[in-house]
Amino acid sequence: MKHRVLPFLYAALLALPLVACSDDSTAPDDDGPPAPQYVGAKGVTIREVSIYQSLKRQLMVDGAPVEGGVPLVQGRDAVIRVFYDTNADYAGGEVTARLEIAGADPIEIVGTLDASSSEDQINSTINFSVPGAAIGASLEYSISILEEGQTADDNAAAHYPASGTEAVAVDGPANTFRVILAPFRYDADGSGREPDMSEATVESYRQRLKQLYPVSNVEVTVREVTPWNQELDAFGNGWQELGYELYGMRAQDNAPDDVYYYAIFNPSASFNQYCSQGCLLGVTLLNADPPDVGQVDLRFAMGVGYPEYAADTMAHELGHAHGREHADCGGPDQPDPQFPHPGGQIGVWGLDTVSLELKPPTLITDIMGYCDNQWVSDYTYSAFLNRGKNVNLPRWHGPKQRVALVGLDGKGVATFGGFRDAAMGLQGKRVQSRVTHHDGRVAPTDGVFYAWDHLPGGMVLVPVSDESVDTLELELEGVRHVLHTGP
Ligand SMILES: [Zn+2]
Over 60: is that where the pLDDT of 20 sits? Predict the structure, then answer.
């Protein structure tokens, strides 16, 4: 008879002190007492199994499966936490915790157990680091806490499920969130200052997006530097012009539909200089219409590159570009009335699956608020996933439409910003417009208004049949604007 030797395949992170499994080699055949098996460890009960990809989702509590909760995403790294209790029958010896996932290598952790696991103590649970490749279109798993013993001594409470595997639905398909960083060189003060685009910094941006967005992977690439000689101040002056530039750049690059552009720049040498009297960190247009996908052309945002705030500003602004409104923390204008948790809190336990830092639900706030100590709430995470299913996965081939772009600044001044191609049928806030062509043709049409998130004003797209436009007339917030498009 042979021992069943558990291969030590993958030592993940450990709540438990780690030792390698010994190879017990071959036992003598048939004589002597039966060789020991690995059986459910005495005095040990698996009380709860939960999986975290950013946020906690319970899989089992007190022996029963739990339905629903935070959606799982295929291909996304995870941590499975096993909460246990021990009683006097557990003698304090080493056990082997084993996670099996159909289609993936089993993962084992060897160590000793304490009395009881608790929610807020990461080291009180058995923590399996599960690579994204093990999370398929469904998750079929089993967990056992094992020790050597006779079959008759098996403790059923140390296995879940009792036999076979349990299947859990994986709602989110594998998908990659793609971002192009567009650095701008700040020439307005003669400095030629560029934001830090070192490999390490770009990687830190990528990691932050990966922590907060329900995706299998994040791809960040850096575009060539764009010189910029107009002033960008801390109160938002000049930002709109950069927004129009970015809008045009996205179209001019013929960027794939699922790509988000993020402009990054440093108008002063340091954050403290820049923000000495308060400041704007980032801006975009709320891309909430139609709700499931938004506008392809509005998949852009911009912000400052100061390391104190750059990554979170990017994650926040790209959140608006995913159609998310503000979480009510730190006093944003018009917080999302649907946001379910008080004070913009994240609502459920979060976990950084790399550092294993826990995020208590009432102490940490959502990335779409203005507070510090941010993570992502279950509400925002699910909304990102819904948007990502529609945006990040298939290429969206909408018809292109020629439009005249009109910018409305914070003082109510409208300016003509040229002609562009806008993809898809335009949706959003309707603006009655009238286009007069050089040959006298007059076309009444509906323009669409998109508001800046952190600035007054916004952008209007007015569909045109061709570019022989003499004047554009439109009414915005009760004010009639007449714009001449030509010289
Ligand atoms: Zn915002």
Answer: no
**Which residue, 140, 169, 198, sits at the end of a domain?**
169
Q: Who surrounds ion ligand 1 at CB < 5 A?
A: 453
- pLDDT over 50 at 201, yes or no: yes
Strand 226-228 relative to strand 176-186, pairing: parallel
The answer to whether the CB of 472 falls within 8 A of the CB of 485 is: yes
pLDDT digits (tens, 9 = 90+) for 97-144: 999 999 999 999 999 999 999 999 999 999 999 999 999 999 999 999
- Which residue carries 């395949």 as its tokens? 9
In the reported structure, the alpha carbon of residue 335 is separated from the centroid of ligand 1 by a whole-number distance in angstroms of 9
Helix (H) or strand (E) holding 250: helix 239-252
Q: Which residues pair with 436 in a beta bridge?
A: 442, 471
Residues 151 and 183 in one domain: no
Q: How far is the CA of 329 from the centre of ligand 1 (A)?
A: 11
Q: Is 25 left (phi over 0), alpha (psi -120 to 50) or beta?
A: left
Phi, psi dihedral angles at 457 (to 5 degrees): 85, -170
- Cα(454) to ligand 1 centroid in Å equals 6
What is the Å distance from ligand 1's center to 312 Cα? 11
Structure tokens at 420: 């562009």
**What's the DSSP call for residue 318?**
H
Is residue 3 packed enough to be buried (19+ CB in 10 Å), middle (13-18) or exposed (0-12)?
middle
| pTM (2 d.p.) | 0.86
Residues 155 and 214 both lie in one domain: no
Clarify whether residues 268 and 248 are in a common domain. Answer: yes
Token pair for 264: 């990054």
99 and 147 assigned to the same domain: yes
Look up residue 151 and give its amino acid.
Answer: T
Query: By residue range, what is the domain housing residue 332?
Result: 176-391
CATH number at residue 387: 3.40.390.10
Instruction: Say if residue 310 is in the same domain as residue 449.
Output: no
CATH number for the domain spanning 414: value is 2.40.30
Residue 382 and residue 272 share a domain:
yes
Say which residues have a Cβ less than 8 Å from residue 409's Cβ, sequence separation at least 6. 240, 415, 456, 457
Q: Are residues 298 and 411 in the same domain?
A: no
Tokens in use for 277? 């009297």
285 CA distance to ligand 1 middle (Å): 10
pLDDT mean across residues, the chain: 88
Amino acid type, 470:
D
Taken in order 353, 358, 360, 363, the sign of the CA dihedral is: negative
Determine the Cα–Cα distance for residues 38 and 212; give it in Å rounded to an integer: 39
Question: What is the distance between the alpha carbons of residues 62 and 434, in angstroms, rounded to a whole number?
Answer: 66
